[in-house]
Design brief:
Elements (H helix, E strand, L loop, with lengths): L5 E4 L3 H12 L4 E4 L13 E2 L1 H9 L3 H7 L1 E3 L1 E6 L2 E7 L10 E3 L2 H14 L4 E2 L2 E8 L4 E7 L4 E6 L1 E4 L6 H6 L4 E4 L2 E11 L6 E7 L2 E9 L2 E10 L11 H10 L6 E11 L2 E4 L4 E2 L2 E3 L5 E2 L7 H20 L9 H26 L3 H14 L3 H11 L13 E2 L28 E3 L4 H8 L17 E4 L5 E5 L4 H12 L3
Parallel strand pairs: 1-2, 1-12, 2-8, 5-15, 12-21, 23-26
Antiparallel strand pairs: 3-7, 4-7, 5-6, 9-10, 10-11, 13-19, 14-17, 14-18, 15-16, 16-17, 19-22, 20-21, 24-25, 25-26
Helix pairs in contact: 1-4, 1-7, 7-8
Bound molecules: flavin-adenine dinucleotide.
């Protein structure tokens, strides 16, 4: 890499996603990782609809789907009572399901694909410190033998997890708290009446128990043990303790065996106030950590990476001014706030211990999730299909979108073929508008993705599939203003 490229610190799922995106957009990239090998813990097991839509642009969605377990349904139960049935199969997306796949598999697929793009993860290479200026970043990297070297880059992205060195280097607070309740996690084989195509959530009087089918008879079981009784972390559970939780929380005849991960954990809920400063950015767990309820953590981090990659690529290529990068923190920090509050709400509801409160919860949830509109909203939220950037400086509505179509900042469900193949905007319009704007702004507009608009009007769609501008048919001046603003300072 010449020193005009991007240095990524950390090759977890978020750093790998960013590296794949940057490499396919032609940005010089290096990715350093202090660990000698990929994690062997299943960790994040759910990839949701929106992440798969975005991976499809990199040609990776089918490979991920083939390696995972497609789970189109979810159930919430309390004893023998069904509180709610979730059906992702009817969501408006090519990937209407949760893909359950252990994190090491996800990382393997991403890392192998990255290799085909000519980028290798530099393992046993730890970023220890960095200095950033307006001109670039200089990082100190330490090898396994203790030797140190300097590396210059135009940008540094910390994808280095919850204990991020890059976040510490920026001096950013990781505001939030650790919840003082203990949780148990088991990754094991289950035999008996347990479905492989359904996520099961049991709200029991003693606490929650959730079962996620990983395929081929293997499952992730998560249960809460209530308020922590000691300061330090609880000892990891035995298989017998996990079996007692399965038996005790309303499941009959399900027998666990052959565990390959048994662990206790506590939930951290923390987030930075902004996702970067100057030429240094944070993405993934380095910027936000929260309850695993809803399985949104890794997905949110990957979508940080998708959001940042096309912006870095456009600025690197000289198509956009550096101000475009300011929108990254604005957009993703707002999503992070929402993900944190939703995960906290889901966890709090599950942790209720008072029998009266539990009875009210069960009745209200049964009623509310029985309403098809509310249920569909919950399904879309889990699938991350409703993420939108309405408050972003990149979202401009000159006119309202026609009824039923996305407004500026919202995801365009049916993207034209080829959109997002390059880090360029797509113009959707009639009467030669796409070709005219592509000719005038070749550094910003993709001449190959011009298409008819989804409804009346002139639309500009971002490389990540969110609507940037909605203008009246033929309103070329508004489109020109939009593109001029993005190109300013380049
Ligand atoms: C039990 C559990 C269950 C979960 N379930 C889900 C789920 O179902 N769905 C979901 O979306 N999320 C889930 N998560 C969260 C998910 O695992 C994380 O959000 C995800 O791993 C974050 O990815 P990341 O790449 O940001 O960070 P990490 O996976 O933590 O990767 C960071 C990498 O950076 C490296 N690194 C750190 N410091 C340095 C340095 N100074 N120099 C070089 N390298 C460095 C580390 O070695 C590591 O490889 C779960 C987490 C846990 C623990």
């Amino acid at each position: 890499m010449t020193d005009d490229g991007v240095l990524i610190c950390g090759a977890g799922p978020v750093g790998l996603t960013l590296a794949v995106e940057l490499a396919r957009f032609g940005v010089p990239v290096r990715i350093v990782e202090k660990a000698a090998a990929r994690t062997d813990k299943s960790k994040a097991v759910a990839i949701w609809c929106r992440s798969l839509e975005l991976f499809a642009r990199a040609g990776l969605a089918d490979r991920l789907v083939a390696a995972g377990n497609v789970v189109p349904y979810g159930s919430i139960l309390a004893g023998t009572e069904t509180i709610a049935e979730l059906d992702f199969a009817e969501l408006e997306t090519p990937y209407p399901f949760a893909l359950l796949i252990p994190q090491p598999e996800t990382e393997r697929i991403l890392e192998e694909h990255l290799g085909t793009l000519g980028v290798e993860v530099e393992r046993q290479t730890e970023l220890t410190t960095f200095k950033a200026s307006d001109a670039g970043v200089s990082a100190t990297l330490r090898a396994a033998n203790g030797s140190e070297r300097q590396l210059a880059a135009a940008w540094l992205v910390g994808c280095d997890g919850a204990h991020s060195t890059v976040r510490h280097g920026l001096g950013f607070d990781f505001e939030g708290a650790t919840q003082m309740s203990d949780w148990v996690l088991a990754d094991l084989m289950l035999a008996g009446p347990v479905a492989e195509d359904r996520i099961l959530i049991y709200w029991h009087a003693d606490g929650i128990l959730a079962i996620f089918p990983l395929g081929a008879g293997r499952f992730r079981v998560v249960a809460d043990l209530g308020p922590a009784r000691q300061e330090g972390r609880r000892a990891d559970p035995t298989l017998a303790e996990v079996q007692a939780l399965i038996d005790g929380r309303g499941l009959q005849g399900i027998v666990g065996a052959d565990p390959n991960w048994l662990a206790c954990f506590r939930i951290n809920e923390r987030k930075v106030a902004r996702y970067g400063q100057g030429r240094v950015f944070l993405a993934g767990d380095a910027a936000h950590v929260h309850s695993p309820a809803g399985g949104q953590g890794m997905n949110t981090g990957m979508q940080d990476a998708f959001n940042l990659a096309w912006k870095l690529a456009l600025v690197h290529a000289g198509g956009a001014g550096p101000a475009l990068l300011d929108s990254y923190s604005i957009e993703r920090s707002a999503v992070g706030d929402e993900v944190l509050s939703n995960a906290t709400r889901l966890t709090d509801v599950a942790l209720l211990r008072n029998p009266l409160a539990q009875a009210v919860r069960n009745r209200v949830a049964h009623f509310v999730l029985g309403l098809s509109q509310v249920r569909r909203r919950a399904e879309r939220q889990l699938g991350e299909l409703d993420i939108a950037y309405e408050a972003s400086p990149l979202s401009v509505s000159v006119v309202s979108s026609p009824q039923g179509l996305p407004d500026a900042g919202e995801r365009l469900p049916a993207a034209p073929a080829g959109m997002g193949a390059r880090a360029l905007f797509a113009v959707l319009g009639s009467a030669g508008e796409p070709a005219a704007l592509a000719a005038e702004y070749p550094h910003l507009v993709d001449a190959e993705t011009g298409d008819d608009p989804p409804g009346e009007g002139l639309w500009i769609v971002r490389p990540d599939g969110y609507v940037g501008l909605v203008a009246a048919p033929g309103d070329l001046p508004s489109a020109q203003d939009y593109l001029e603003a993005i190109g300013r300072g380049r």
